[in-house]
Amino acid sequence: MMDRCGKAGAPQRGAGRGSWRVLSAAFLLPACLWLTLAALRGWAPFGPHSVVLADMRNQYISFFAYLQGVLRGQNSLLYSLAKSPGGNMWDLAATYLFSPVNLLAGLFPAARLPEALLCVVTLKTGLCGLTCALFLCARAEDGPPFATPVTVALSTAYALSGYTTRYFSNVMWLDGVILLPLVALGLRRLFAGRSPWLYLFSLAGALITHYYIGYMLCLFSALAFALGCLAGAPRRHTLAWLGRRAGLFTLASLGAAGLAAFVLLPVFASLSSDSKASLGVLQSLAALRGTDGAPRLGILSGLLTVPLATEQDAFPAIPALFCGAGTTALTGLYFLNTQIRWREKLAAALLLFALITSFHDPGLNLIWHGFNSPMGFPYRNAFLFPFCAVALAGRCWARRGGTRRWHGLAIAVAFAGLALLIARREGFDAAALPWRALDVALVAGCCLLITCGKRRPACGDPAPRARAVAAWGLALILCAHLLLQGELTIRRIQAGTFQMNRAAIANRITQNTALAQAIRDRDGGLYRMELPLLNADDSLALGYPGLSNFSSVARQGPLALFGALGYSSNGISTILYSPHTGIAADSLLGLRYLALENTPPQTDWRPLFTQGKATVYENPYALPLVFAADAEVMRACLPTDTPFEAVNRLYSAILGEETTILRPLTGDVTPSNARPAPLGDGTVYHRQDKAAPAAITAAARDAAAGPVYVDIEVSGMGQPARVSAGGQDMGNFYSYHRHNLFALGETTDVTVRFESDYLRIARFQFAQQDTQALARAVEMIREGGAQMRLLSGSHLAGTVHVPPGKTALLCTFPYDEGWRARVDGKDVAPLLSLAASPMRAGGEPGAPLPSLMVIPITPGIHALDLRYTPPGLAAGAWVSLATAALIAGIAVWRKARRRPLAVAKPMAD
Fold it and tell me: What percent helix, strand, coil does the chain show, rounded to 5?
């Protein structure tokens, strides 16, 4: 503890008195400030809008709805056909759903998911403040910090840092932010020679709740351990000191990984079976040779208030380092504090430098992100910097007797110089200058509060009144600055991303739930359907097999197959179904029902019924999800540059004979107010008159009777546009997807209207559907269709009549090593089928990837049983159980060693 002059002394009695008040305030203050931000933004229940923004709308609302189904026993955590076109759910759950806080969603009905997500984010924000306060209050040698509001304010600065307010929509990342202070506290205890259990269990919790952020905490722990050895190693017996702590650190880290093995091993098996992981490693190794990251000065601008007027992007490409003016002032003063050892300062400086360097260097940045380039949300490890800054600020405040007035002046001047350099880099933007001036004023004011005040002559410590004024003033400035930055950040996100109000989300969920149930009431079989989309993962939200999907754990093989067949896919994470894609491909994948709110589909879909605003259509050519096929299907390799040829080749492979369902047509291209120029493998069209509309019209030649389709193939990254045919709007042009297929019906021309100054088009491809050939092919395939029923999310069973000459069962869901097949009670090894090539940068096809699953079979009537277990789950569960048993044994043994021996009492006379 510290004596009254700020020097180390004996621990004070009652040092923890009032700690529960501080910890309660550290939880409640950031939670209340977050709810204040929600009220200012009008989020439900405070207004008509919702917290469902960015990826929370695109993905997580559906994942939480799926979790609700799991809690009600309706969905499986092992496998689901609702994860288009069917896939491992364990890796998705490990990525998005394993936080225990997410269980709150089970208390809300599906239509109230926006409020459920707000409750989850609020609770996690409060927990961030709580764990940070535990870390700040644990330094007994710094004196009891419970009497000051600065501890609560610094904890709030961590909980409402720029990272959490910018990336709150990625709610699963916040668990790592919660657990980081506990990991750091566990490391501190390990260095002090105490038990490693806190470090072990908190790191294990991080790996279990979100292995991706947990991986970052592992890297940070290794870095912090190395620098902690530099700061804390004694001058004598150094090797023995280092050896004991290195051994404890290694064993505790392995123990954490062992406890989390039931998550890590299945996830590793899933990632290693996909080429995205190896591609990320190659990208990282290549990037290590270059340093084309953001300038270091630009990185440090993340410490400043970023107003709405100066940022066009909702998620600017600088790390979210903001943690308030008070934290910045205290962090700077830490390095001038005379009561802190130079070795500790050196280790802290190296840690901050290592983090800033990792933000700057592209290779190191990729390594921190698990060898995969972060898309849309850069610098996902940026939460480490605010924590380090808050930890150093808390240390400086505890030893504030070592600061002087000139220290505060030096930090204020240095920060003003930094703000001036950043303003110069921004071109002295008039909209940003007032905010830069505000930052400088706030930091200078905080430095003044920290270092000034009447001091005791004996030791230079401020008088109680001055200390109270400084503490409360610093806390109020810090909280006000956090609230201001949070409001500006969230306003920018709302302005830069599409959002739906709470009523629209609730209405869409209610409508689609009723539509899906109405379709199930009419048809209790196994098929796919597509409903009006809230997001690409609606099928997961409502538990029906669909085709659209968007997640970070999407497999490349199915994505390549969908892209080859003409569905909108970016080849990385997204499949978007469009009713214009083509009924021939829809039929192959078992899409039987389609609900639309506006115009009917252009092809042979049959209207069934209307419910609310939507009309449900039936596909008369829909095939079952499992059917007999020719052995040629195991050798088929689909082209990725011609969707019409891919469909023809797939039908031919299934039937074992050549068939043409989509006949290619030639076409003419006519630009209007657009000047073409060759670029790469395509053409770039520039708008000539900037004030006049620009468009490209393409028309098919030699068309006969039958529906016409057009594929608009993109060259590289294009720009948004609108597509119309025959005077009817066809919707958006997905310029970031290589293929954009549109059903034109009997119309033979299509018009693409510019929404920017240029478009990049590789080519227009036309084809005409031979409906008779399609009907004949479907009839032949249906002869070998399997009658399957879904017994659970990971268990299918049924019967199949395999026609003569057919020796394969094609399953229109992806192959995975976790599948186990039994035919007539005998085990059969499923095989890979239908290779397709993913698209590389520039549109070049890569190595073929297997996608769907095929089961060898003989002609005749057979009973079929399919079960799925995520690869690595059983082994991981055994490793986790063994590790838990070993840890329990060690704990019992350590407790037994410390128990004193009982002394026998002498017998009475």
Answer: 50, 20, 35
Which pTM value belongs to this model? 0.89
Determine whether 467 is exposed, middle or buried from the number of CB atoms within 10 Å of its CB (0-12, 13-18, 19+). middle
- Dihedral, CA of residue 700, residue 702, residue 704 and residue 707, to nearest 10: -20
The strand pairing partners of 790, in sequence order, are 796
d(CA 629, CA 622): 16
CA distance 603 to 597: 16
- CA-CA distance, 740 to 731, in Å (whole number)? 11
DSSP tag of 631? G
Residue with structure tokens 């961590």?
A: 158
Determine the Cα–Cα distance for residues 643 and 576; give it in Å rounded to an integer.
15
- Continuous segment of H or E residues that includes residue 729: strand 728-733
Q: Give the distance, in angstroms, between the CA of residue 523 and the centroid of all CA atoms in the same chain.
A: 35
Sheet of strand 786-792, all strands in order from the earlier edge strand to the far edge: 786-792, 795-802, 860-868, 819-823, 826-828
Rounded CA-CA distance 646/661 in Å is 11
Q: Residue 377: pLDDT band by 50, 70, 90 thresholds?
A: confident
Beta bridge partners of 696: 671, 752
- C-alpha to C-alpha distance for 202 and 218, rounded to whole angstroms: 11
Q: For residues 11 and 555, which has the higher predicted lDDT (pLDDT)?
A: 555
Report d(CA 118, CA 505) in Å as an integer.
Answer: 14
d(CA 773, CA 781): 12
Mean predicted confidence (pLDDT) in 550-572:
82
**What digits encode the pLDDT tens for the residues 840-892?**
444 445 555 668 899 999 999 999 999 999 999 999 999 999 999 999 999 88
Q: Does the pLDDT of residue 449 top 80, yes or no?
A: yes
Residue type, 357: T
CA distances from 565 to 537, 662, 693 (A): 20, 12, 32
Closest to 543 (Cα-Cα) out of 566, 510, 517, 507: 517
What pLDDT, on the 0 to 100 scale, is given for residue 612?
Answer: 87
